[in-house]
Structures are given as structure tokens and as C-alpha cells.
Design a protein that fits this description.
Blueprint lengths: L15 H9 L17 H11 L26 H9 L16 H7 L15 H11 L12 E7 L2 E3 L6 E3 L1 E6 L4 E3 L5 E4 L5 E3 L4 E4 L4 E9 L2 E9 L6 H13 L7 H16 L9 H13 L5 H9 L5 H10 L2 H14 L14 H15 L4 H9 L13 H4 L3 H13 L18 H10 L3 E4 L12 E4 L32 H10 L5 H15 L19 H13 L4 H9 L27 E2 L2 H12 L6 E2 L2 E2 L17 H5 L19 H9 L1 H8 L4 H7 L4 H13 L5 H12 L4 H13 L2 H4 E2 L1
Parallel strand pairs: 2-10
Antiparallel strand pairs: 1-4, 3-8, 4-5, 6-9, 7-8, 9-10, 11-12, 13-16, 14-15
């Protein structure tokens, strides 16, 4: 970007004084009568003020197009550009060094003249005085010898609110490169990550609100961010229980404690610290339904529920989990989950025919889970894939992930749990990643070559992926050719015969680097518990701390120690106490959303719900694409991509697979979903099928009570209550057409939250 100088800017009538002073006074000079340590530094004094006042925010002058003809860099990450914009743009009309209080910059800030952003400060405030002094000193720009902020510190860093404590004052200090320490509490910017738990004022006062739990405040000054973490307990923390758990921890420091016991202890410590009471363990029949849905995406059969409930052996929970992991539905279900994350997409090219590539990639993913391929090898196989889809289906990942943005963002979200999209255009506003970091990672994929791949203008067939001899990525602002390097790591060696993707995979799977294991452990915990220790699962950053750091560290350690064994990680989670708790809240945990003091119910995903309806009604769904039918019995979790037509799946939130973000899948209830359950021709056809469950029950010789019990266990994995049994029996007996009566009863039960949710 070409930068103009103040000397080349022609003065207008309004900005004449500002132009003359800027032209005559060198910007590096301290005005007469000022001590050197009183000089206002543009980067470390003026820019933070502009950030605090909101001038360079994304909703104001910091957005890419600016605001009302005036543009600043987002959050001040390009101080040279900002200085030129303030002093030189529009003939310097915004500043009056001879009379700062008359300048447009200050008049708009205090509301003396109309300003779209409203009043931002008041005369005499610290922010006002800094801008005023800067103009009095000749509006100096950034200098090479200017002090820079090297660290931003918040005190206290953590706080546990007492029962009668409503506020917590923060103090923020900036450590400068020249050794000085400045109190910047009134110049910093604050943002609470959960205003329902606690809000924070402009002066850094944290004030508790209605909910209890954990929250964090991101503190920004200049280009640095820091964090305050606050805990507002539900009741007075259980000191006795904390001491007991601490003693337990000390007793097992020698290494005796492993696995599930360690996870249970760390979760219990969090409950004690928050003063929250966990719900009791769930009923055994409900647990069977929960774990079968979570591992296999499938409802348990009546026989499976009864067998588990009647089993009196002490290890039956472990044997149940092991049996579910051995079923083909496990690999199919998690294969579909990872096909979402890896963007195995069919839509966007053509919906007129099935594509062999997506089917091959889908089958390859399923096979990896069926073989329990260690996760580090699974990831390495994808990142370093070369060849064609016929010889190496993992290369299909590169069909969708094919641009600079795709490479960086898909890799980071899928395998590091990091969102770096912001760094494509500017420094990340809530993390340390810069444009250099973004495009350095992009350079890892700069030599991905492609040959062939299109049989016609619409449908890509089989591209061949190979390592090209050349391929460079330049910094978009400086034009510098960047060496390939990982986020937060050193540059990789460059050689014609060394594939940077291999270097990236080795960095990622190095035992000393916990990021890969940490991200997967958090993702799997979220899958089974309904919420990640870091939430959302793909937004891991210093300003979004884990709700239970020790728990996440333990899960990560166990996963790495197991050799990245995904099935062992699932066992660890499913056998934990937190996973086995009831979903019914108690007075002691009703407001809990973070500590897993109860199981958090969640709606069945689109594919699982459609398969569950088909399973209950005993009528499979017929799928076809491009005029070709899938084999009979194909389930929704077996579909290779999101392009297979299904209105039901689209209404219930099937993702488009356009990104690696799990947020694409919508599991929250919506009005359109209820209308689909009420008016879906597909569901009505299933209910009316002569081979379906309603017709079978209508013809069954069993008693009415036995048939109703079978129906409830089939849908809910439990027997009906006395009231439910009486109501259902009365309804059935009051209809002259038994088949129609059972159709209506099944239909009404399918629309209940108890069926639609895993709980």
C-alpha cells in the first residue's frame, strides 16, 4: 500500500494550521518546554485511545470500507497507516495542532458537532488529554525508538466471588520496552464473555449478574490482550470436599490414579469449587438409550434395553460400551461426523449424479474408525495425501480444500480447534495471530499441485494431487515471500525434495505438541457431554479459557498416552460419572451450564433422527441421487455427502459442509421442524406402510398393556407410567380401527421432546 507523506499533502482552508505545523515541526522532535518522558507516542498512547473510544472498531472506521470517508486500521494494528489517515487525509482537516480543542477529532469525540458514533468521551478525561497533548506536540507519528508494549497484566488474574461480593475492581498495567510500567486501567478496553454471569464497566469494574458460573473478561490495550477469570459460585464452595479431593490428589501423585478415576476427581473438584450439587445417576434404561445414540447414532432395541437392565454384573457398563464400539454403526456414525468436519461435499459441483470421490472418501473415513486407526495417523494421512482418489481416497480432501483460505481455515479449525479467519486481513483481534502467521501456514500448502480432474464442465472426477517443484505465498501487505511454518512454530526447511505438509504433520503429531490431542479430546468430550471444556470446540484461544483446565489437561494426557486411541478416549468419557448423571436438574444445579453437574439434553441430529424414526416405525428410508437409488436399507448416517436429496434432513439442520466448523450443523429446535413432523408426507407414508410398527401392533395377539409397554420401550427405552398406560389404553380402546389408532399414537409419541432429544 503506497503511503503518502504529510509534506505531500496540500492544505485546505480548514486544515491550514495543522498542515503548516506538521510541515515545519519534524515529527521526531519533542516540542520546546516538554520533557522527553512527557512525549506522547503515537503507537502506545494515541492508538490505544482510539481503540478505547471505538474509533477503529470493526463497526466504525476500522472496517475495511471505513465510515463516512474516513478509514483506520482495525484496532490500530497498522499505526503508520493510521497516522497518515489522521494527519494527511482530506488535507488534514480533522486536526488543529494550534487549537486542539477546536479540531474535528475532539469536537466529534465530545459531541460538540454531529457525529454518527455519538459522544465518545468528555473534555478533561484521560483519553481527551492524551489526544490534546499529542496535537500540541506536533502530532508525531510512529518512531523506531518509540517504546512498545511488551506485556499487559491484569490484577487480579482470577477471583472467586464471596457470597456477599457483587463487584471486583480490575487494575491493568502495561510493561513497556523501555522498562516503564504504566497504569492503563482507564485506557484499556474490556469485554465479558458471558454478561449473564457478570458484566464489566468501562473502568474495569466486574459486576455479577443473575446467573452463577464461570466467566472471563478480555482486556485490550494497544495490540495486547490479557484475561481476567471470575467464578461466581452457586453456593459457598465446599471447603471440606475440596480438601478431601486435594488429599486424594496428593495420595495418588506417585502415579496410581489413572483414567476414569482421575476424570471423576477433577470434575468433582469443580463442583466443590462452584458449590454446585450434581444430579443423581440416571436410570439404567435411560443410560442404554443415551450411550447407544452417542456411540452408534442408533436407538437400542427392546431386547438390548432389557438385557442391560437385567444384567447384575459389576462391569456391565464397560462391556456395553465395548460392544457398541465393535458395531459397524459406530464407524458409520463417526464417519459421518468426520465427513462433515473434513467437508466431504457433493453439492456445489452438481446434484445430477452421484460422485464416486465422495463415496470413496466417506468409505475411507469409516474404515479408519472401524480399524481404530490412531488419530495422529488418521490426520497425517489426510494432510500428506498424494495421488488420485482411486489409489488414495484421502486426496478428496484437497478437492474442497483448494484455496489459500481453505487450507489455513480448514486445517486450523479441524485439527487445532482455532479460528484464524480474522488474520487473513489483519491481526487477530482476540489472539496473537498476525497476517504473517496466516500466510506462513498457507505457504505450507503452496506446492500442492493438481493434474486432471474434470471429465466435463460440471463434475470433477479424479484429480491427482502431487508435490509441485515450486509454489510460493506472499504477504498481501508487504509482498514478502513467506517461508512455510505452522501457527506458533518455527519455519520449516525449504527443499525441492521436502514436502512442507510432511513437516507440518510431524510438528502436529510431535509428543511435545499437545494441540492435536487437546483439540480432539475437547471435541469428543463435547460430543458426549453436550459442551466442550473449551466452548465452542473450534475456538481455542487465550481469551476463551477452558471451564476446567485440569480436566482438559487430563483428557489430553490420557489420549496421548494411549497412542491417540480414539476408542479408548470414548471409553474414558462414557464411563465417567459426569456422563452417567441424570439430565433432570435439581435445586442445587438448575442454572449450571458449564460444570457438567447434570447431563445436558440435546436434540438428535438430522440423520440420527430420521434413522430413529425409520427404526421405530420399522420402515427404512429410500434414498436416491441423480436417478440412481441407494441400496435398500441404507441409513441416513451412511450417506456419502450432503447432496443426496432429503427435505427432512435439510429442515433438521444437515450441514452444507462448506467449512470445518461444527457450528454448521443446527441441532436447536425450530418451528419448521415441528411442521415437518406434523405434515411430512415421508413420515405419513412410513406410518401407513402395511409392514410398519402400527400395523404389527394392531394385529399382535398380546394384551393392550403389553403392546403399549413395547411401544414405550421402543421409543423411550422405558416402560410407561401408570397414568401414561391408562391414557394410551383408553385412547386405543376408544377407536374402532386399531391400525389407525396405533398410527395416531405412534405419530404423537414421535413428536415428543423425550423422543426428539438425547437425555
Amino acid at each position: 500500500m503506497r503511503m503518502r507523506t504529510v509534506m505531500r499533502t496540500k492544505p485546505g482552508v480548514v486544515g491550514l494550521a495543522a498542515w503548516l505545523l506538521a510541515a515545519l515541526v519534524p515529527v521526531s522532535r519533542v516540542p520546546a518546554g516538554e520533557r522527553a518522558d512527557d512525549r506522547v507516542a503515537f503507537s502506545t498512547d494515541v492508538v490505544p485511545v482510539l481503540t478505547r473510544l471505538g474509533c477503529n472498531g470493526g463497526g466504525c472506521h476500522g472496517k475495511s470500507t471505513g465510515q463516512n470517508g474516513f478509514r483506520l486500521s482495525l484496532l490500530g494494528y497498522e499505526p503508520e497507516f493510521d497516522h497518515e489517515a489522521l494527519v494527511g487525509d482530506d488535507r488534514g482537516r480533522r486536526l488543529l495542532a494550534a487549537s486542539p480543542e477546536s479540531s474535528l477529532l475532539l469536537q466529534k469525540a465530545v459531541g460538540s458537532v454531529p457525529h454518527g458514533g455519538g459522544r465518545r468521551t468528555v473534555p478533561g478525561s484521560e483519553s481527551y488529554q492524551i489526544l490534546e497533548r499529542w496535537m500540541q506536540q506536533g502530532m508525531p507519528g510512529p518512531r523506531p525508538d518509540d517504546p512498545t508494549v511488551v506485556a499487559l497484566e491484569v490484577s487480579p488474574r482470577q477471583a472467586l466471588f464471596a457470597a456477599d461480593q457483587s463487584t471486583q475492581a480490575l487494575q491493568v498495567t502495561a510493561r513497556l520496552s523501555d522498562g516503564r510500567v504504566q497504569d492503563v486501567t482507564r485506557l484499556a478496553v474490556y469485554q465479558s464473555n458471558d454478561p449473564e454471569i457478570a458484566e464489566v464497566s468501562e473502568t474495569g469494574e466486574v459486576r455479577r449478574q443473575g446467573r452463577s458460573g464461570q466467566m472471563a473478561v478480555m482486556v485490550r490495550y494497544g495490540d495486547h490482550v490479557s484475561l481476567f477469570e471470575g467464578t461466581i459460585p452457586f453456593r459457598t464452595p465446599d471447603a471440606r470436599r475440596l480438601a478431601e479431593l486435594g488429599e486424594s490428589s496428593a495420595a495418588v501423585a506417585g502415579g496410581e490414579e489413572t483414567g476414569v478415576a482421575r476424570i471423576d476427581r477433577l470434575v468433582a473438584r469443580q463442583w466443590a469449587r462452584l458449590g454446585v450439587e450434581p444430579s443423581p445417576l440416571t436410570e439404567e434404561a435411560e443410560f442404554v438409550r443415551r450411550v447407544t445414540l452417542d456411540i452408534c447414532g442408533t436407538l437400542p432395541t427392546v431386547a438390548e434395553v432389557q438385557a442391560y437392565v437385567q444384567d447384575a454384573s459389576p462391569d456391565k457398563k464397560r462391556r456395553l460400551v465395548d460392544s457398541l464400539l465393535a458395531r459397524p454403526e459406530y464407524a458409520r456414525f463417526f464417519g459421518q461426523k468426520w465427513a462433515d468436519i473434513l467437508q466431504n461435499r457433493g453439492r456445489g459441483y452438481s446434484t445430477s449424479r452421484q460422485r464416486p470421490g465422495t463415496a470413496l472418501f466417506s468409505a475411507w473415513i469409516r474404515d479408519c474408525f472401524a480399524r481404530n486407526l490412531p488419530y495422529d495417523q488418521f490426520v497425517t494421512s489426510i494432510l500428506t495425501a498424494s495421488g488420485s482418489q482411486e489409489t488414495n481416497p484421502a486426496t478428496v480432501w484437497y478437492r474442497t480444500v483448494r484455496t489459500t483460505e481453505n487450507y489455513v481455515e480448514s486445517f486450523s479449525q479441524a485439527f487445532l480447534g482455532v479460528r484464524v479467519q480474522c488474520a487473513q486481513c489483519h491481526h487477530h483481534p482476540a489472539e496473537r495471530w498476525s497476517q504473517g502467521d496466516y500466510y506462513g501456514l498457507a505457504a505450507v500448502f503452496g506446492r500442492v499441485g493438481r493434474k486432471g480432474g474434470f471429465a466435463d464442465a460440471e463434475v470433477p472426477t479424479s484429480e491427482t494431487i502431487y508435490l509441485a517443484d515450486h509454489g510460493e505465498v506472499k504477504h498481501p501487505r508487504t509482498g514478502e515471500v513467506l517461508a512455510p511454518r505452522p501457527l506458533g512454530g518455527e519455519a520449516f526447511p525449504i527443499s525441492k525434495y521436502v514436502d512442507p505438509r510432511v513437516s507440518l504433520a510431524r510438528w502436529l503429531t510431535d509428543p511435545a505438541n499437545p494441540q492435536l490431542a487437546r483439540t480432539m479430546a475437547n471435541r469428543m468430550w463435547a460430543h458426549f457431554l453436550g459442551r466442550g471444556v473449551i466452548h465452542p470446540v473450534d475456538d481455542s484461544r487465550s481469551t476463551n479459557p477452558p471451564s476446567n483446565p485440569e480436566l482438559l489437561d487430563a483428557l489430553t494426557h490420557e489420549f496421548q498416552q494411549s497412542g491417540y486411541d480414539i476408542q479408548q478416549l470414548i471409553r474414558l468419557i462414557c464411563l465417567s460419572r459426569a456422563y452417567g448423571l441424570s439430565s433432570l436438574p435439581t435445586d442445587g444445579n438448575r442454572g449450571d451450564l458449564q460444570s457438567y453437574a447434570r447431563f445436558y439434553p440435546r436434540r438428535l441430529s438430522a440423520e440420527v433422527l430420521l434413522d430413529a424414526i425409520s427404526q421405530v416405525v420399522e420402515v427404512p428410508t429410500a434414498f436416491s441421487a441423480g436417478g440412481a437409488a441407494f441400496p435398500e436399507g441404507t441409513r441416513a448416517i451412511d450417506l456419502p455427502d450432503e447432496a443426496v436429496p432429503s427435505n427432512f434432513l435439510d429442515v433438521f439442520g444437515r450441514p452444507a459442509r462448506s467449512s470445518a466448523c461444527e457450528c454448521e450443523r443446527v441441532d436447536s429446535p425450530a418451528l419448521g421442524q415441528m411442521l415437518e413432523l406434523v405434515s411430512s408426507a415421508e413420515i405419513q407414508e412410513k406410518l401407513a406402510n402395511p409392514q410398519g410398527l402400527p400395523q404389527r401392533l394392531a394385529k399382535s395377539p398380546a394384551s393392550q398393556s403389553e403392546r403399549v409397554r413395547e411401544l414405550f420401550v421402543t421409543l423411550f427405552a422405558r416402560s410407561p407410567s401408570t397414568e401414561e398406560l391408562a391414557t394410551a389404553s383408553e385412547f386405543l380402546e376408544g377407536n374402532t380401527d386399531p391400525a389407525e389408532a396405533y398410527r395416531s399414537l405412534v405419530w404423537s409419541l414421535l413428536a415428543t421432546n423425550e423422543f426428539l432429544f438425547n437425555h
